[in-house]
Amino acid sequence: MYLKFKWDLMDRFFIGNPYILQADPCNISHNGCARAIAELTQTPRGTTVGTYPTCICNLKMDYAMLLSTLEEYVHMLINTCTDENIWWFILGVIVLFLLIVFLAIKKAKNSKNENLKRLPEHSIKNCEYCLFYLMDYMLLQSSRLPIREERKQNFGQRINPVNHIKDVEGRGLKNSEEWRKPVFQIGNNDEKIKDFFENKRIEIEEDDWDESCKIVDRVLEIVVYEMREAANKRFPGLVLSGTFKKQGSSREGLKVCDPLEFDVLLPFHLEDVQTKNDIVRDSSGRIMPGLFKMEIIDYDDMPSWWRKCELLDHNQNKTYLNTSNFQKKVFASLLDQTREEINKRLKKFMENTDDVYALVRSVISPSLKITIQVKSQNGLRDFKKAIWHSGDTFSRQKGFGSFNQVNLEIDLVPGILLSNDEYPKAMSNQKSFVYCERYGVMKWVNKHNPTILREDGNLIWRNSTCGYEKYMFDIAQRNSSQLYVMTACRLIKGALRELASDSNNQLGSVLKSYHLKNLCLYCFLFLTIHEKPNKLSSVTEAMGYFIEFIRLCLEAGNMPHFFHGNPYTHKMFPGYSFGPKSPKYNMFAMNSEETLIQARLGFKNFRLMLHGLYLKKKQLNDKKIKLFAGLLQRQ
Fold first, then answer.
1. Which is it for strands 261-270 and 238-240: parallel, antiparallel or unpaired?
2. Is the peptide bond before 533 cis (omega within 30 degrees of 0)?
3. Kind and range of the H or E run holding 128
4. How deeply is 40 buried, as exposed, middle or buried, from its count of CB atoms within 10 A (0-12, 13-18, 19+)?
5. What is the rounded distance in angstroms from the CA atom of residue 309 to the CA atom of residue 330?
6. Euclidean distance between CA atoms 148 and 93, whole angstroms
7. Which of 272, 342, 521, 543 could, after both became Cys, cross-link 488 (CB 3.0–4.6 A)?
8. Which residues partner with 421 through β-bridges?
């Protein structure tokens, strides 16, 4: 019994593999790498060609395709053997070899060799990931599970390492995939700002915030796990991630008043499905920015559930994925199955009590809204016990008196990864590259929209920029001027909530949370990045610019989207893929002229409410205001 390592087959893998050839060339001598492996493993070397493990470094490679190729060559590297004990010995030797190669790569990272210095850090990291995949495969073979099932289990698990950042005072912040405590940062002259937050109860109690975050995380863990298991059984080829991406105001630090709304994105991918994204045009033939249709190639080989759920829509000699049916008949169905299971557990927990707990869902493009209905003496605290101990009964005497009724909402948005855009580390002074994910989310038309053609209404996807937004708000944690802007944004959001009960004031119906976040990003750009002076002294100063930008947008009937057609995005993201050449998007486009007129009138009363909380226009930098005003004229 012996193991004969076939160097020539390794050479053939790294030289002849078409997926390896797609990778960018690495700056490490392949001969030197081969000698290092031979020395460490004490394995004689025949030929000295091939760029060995360093070739697996490129971020843009398809790991699933590479893994399939590795699978073939691992079989070739091992002598055919029928004895099970010998096979196990060979397996152990191969795994040991991979561990040695891994250690060699780690050693190479610290080498002073000039060639090694030129190798990007992220390339070595991805080489490690590839070795992990190979070791996963070997372990998988020992248990004789299908390789496809292992890929499903690992989808979403091996993601880029979470970066830890520091706030303006240098304190370490929690990792960037946690909910972000609402920002409150004031300057020396912001006493009135502080009083307004207290009087209007805009701030959120820390205990309430922590309680809600824990409950949402726990519910999502259960929901995502159950949906994933159900998808594997009912919809083969639809692979849901084992993790979810937190987003929205509760993730960005912009939440106000109460911690009862949370947003998450659930990544998924479609196995063995070839797609092509097509642009969407409005009724006038103009390209609609940020929207696309997903064309399905070779749809004849789709699984039977595709046709059963009516996912294929034939339109203009092409076949597209019907997003309306995809969300309602697939994802909503998975959530319904999960919801029923959770409600059964909660029903058992409610025995011998007067408590009422329930999960309710609704479908509003692009999200699946989960509403946690709670009616109990201690509100969410009782519900927290229920979801942590759903297998037990909870004894408490009936008729205890008053109830605390609370609804906690979670917007779950399924999203398919479109790209993982990479930017140089100099942007944020971090030790690694910056990665901003872009997802496609289902945005079928759920109400009348005259700008979208009727035949396209059920086919629409939106190119989500949530990954960019999260990154910008994370970086803002280290910049006091940007924290002033975020605090100003929260103040305006809190003040607008009071207008919701006033049916005569249309400002609240025009200025939504995402409009204010969009203006917040423009304030980052023009007030703290674009040109000097790039510092703010207080929230009061930031409020002045915020109010002026709102006034300009209302007067023009136009609020330009930050990520579509913005000529200044390169200041923050060099080589940004959307870029200034992409079509511009007016976020007020869906409002009628009459609504905008009423909103302008309501804005005058709104400014009176905020009197003394912002600087007047004459006290602001007119040049910075003109930069923003220029975008409105270009529209």
1. antiparallel
2. yes
3. helix 121-143
4. middle
5. 7
6. 25
7. 543
8. 436
pLDDT > 70? residue 280: yes
Cβ atoms of 285 and 452 within 8 Å: the answer is no
pTM: 0.72
- As given in the structure block, the two tokens for residue 125 are 């990291």
What is the phi/psi pair of residue 239, to 5°?
-110, 115
* Lowest mean pLDDT, pick from 107-116, 382-391, 413-422, 589-598: 107-116
Give the pLDDT confidence score for residue 105 in this predicted structure.
63
Q: How far apart are CA 620 and CA 541, in angstroms?
A: 8
Other Cβ atoms less than 10 A from the Cβ of 633: the count is 9
The mean pLDDT value for 598-609 works out to 93
Secondary structure (3-state) at 122: helix
139 near 88, Cβ under 8 Å?
A: no
pLDDT confidence bin for 379, thresholds 50/70/90: confident
Distance in angstroms (rounded) separating the CA atoms of residues 100 and 98 = 5
Contact criterion met (CB below 8 Å) for 414 and 462 = no
163-167, 441-445, 496-500: which has the minimum mean pLDDT?
163-167
CA atoms within 13 A on the CB side of 122: 18
Give me 160's structure tokens.
Answer: 């880029």
What sign does the dihedral 546-550-556-560 (CA atoms) show? positive
Strand partners for 320: 295, 313
pLDDT of residue 583: 86
CA gap 520, 254 in Å, rounded:
10
Instruction: Tell me the C-alpha distance between 316 and 247, whole Å.
Output: 36
| Tokens of residue 331, six digits | 């994802």
Q: What is the CA radius of gyration of the chain?
A: 28
Q: Are 449 and 402 in contact (CB under 8 A)?
A: no
CA–CA separation, 346 vs 222, rounded Å? 13
Provide the strand spans (E) within 27-154: none
Residue 543 scores a pLDDT above 70? yes
DSSP state of 166: B
In 3D space, the residue among 509, 166, 110, 441 whose CA is nearest the CA of residue 294 turns out to be 441
Mean pLDDT of 183-195: 95
**Rounded-to-integer distance, Cα 230 and Cα 238, Å:** 10
> Is the bond preceding 450 in cis, omega lying within 30 degrees of 0?
no
**Residue type (1 letter), 226:** E
Residue 169: exposure state from Cβ atoms within 10 A (0-12, 13-18, ≥19)? exposed
Sequence-distant (≥ 6) Cβ neighbours of residue 157 within 8 angstroms: 242, 243
* Cβ 283 vs Cβ 589: under 8 Å: no
* Cα(265)–Cα(247) distance, integer angstroms: 7
* Residue 519 Cα to chain centre, angstroms: 21
Cα–Cα distance between 438 and 419 in angstroms, integer? 5
Length reported for the chain: 635
**Nearest residue to 141 via CA among 45, 59, 72, 51:** 72
Is the distance from CB of 505 to CB of 548 less than 8 angstroms?
no
